[in-house]
Amino acid sequence: MPIEPGDYPIIEPETALGRALVEFFDVLEPVYANGEKGIFQVIVFGGCAVHIHSHARGSADIDAEVSSHGLADKSEIVALLGEDAYVFADEEGVVQMLELDPRFNTTLSPLHEDYEDRVVRLMTQSSVPNVEVYVASALDVAISKLGRFGDRDQKDIQTLLRLPYIDINEFERFAREAISYYVGDQTRILSNLNVVLDDYHCNRGS
User: Fold this and answer.
1) Strand, coil or helix: what is 154?
2) pLDDT tens sequence across 146-165
3) How many beta carbons lie within 10 A of that of residue 26, not counting itself?
4) Entry pTM
5) How many domains does the chain have?
6) Is there a domain that residue 1 lies in?
7) Domain range for residue 59?
């Protein structure tokens, strides 16, 4: 389902990576500029989302849920986005690049069913209003990272949980709800959640 227009919070990217993330999707301008092909919407997860929320480390790969609502074929849009890496310079002048990860799928990790209600829209300077770039909420990004749960994912989760507007009790409640209908190994994910909560409370108490 398309994300319905609403009073979503809006973030104006303040870093080179944040601005590059917005500009990455400008390649779709020729497809959506005249409005005949409908609306393109993307929800960003992964390391890029962690960076938007916390300004912590970034990621060269864009993990994103891509939706084309209208006449444009989703597979063609993904192919267009994947044609070339987007090259930009970071704050130190170091050349970096962004690429869409075509393997990303939101079903591979736990995700709360209401995550679309909590997305944040990225402010764009694009002249194409039909290209809408959203970022999953910090809470939902943290929940999604319970799936792969590598060392970097664990650090990212703790970074997100330390944000001043994140309620740890809300995170735990939504995470348990997401795990309850996760189609994968729920026991493993619950174990990962317990590790996260133990680390969080341990670090808060130290």
Assistant:
1) helix
2) 999 999 999 999 999 999 99
3) 16
4) 0.92
5) 1
6) no
7) 10-205
